[in-house]
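We include the pair:
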Amino acid sequence: MVIFRDFRKVRPWGLSDRALQSIEDVTNPMLNSINEKCARVKKVFVGILGSEMAKHYYIKGTRGEPKSIALPRGLVLWE
């Protein structure tokens, strides 16, 4: 699977069975895993930045619909 090959760039020593299961769960549309992860990420950003600033950084999207991040693309740097 392509996603696992890409993760090797980040973790060249490999992925544990737990990490592989987590990836499968978060990409399975029949599970709620992606929504749970997005809620945790949102909570951290809001806790650090406050609601107004955080809304530009956390993942948004209605359950079952595509997700997005509101950060203006001009602020994203690719190196």
Q: What stands out?
A: The chain is about 50% helix and 5% strand. The chain has a mean pLDDT of 82.
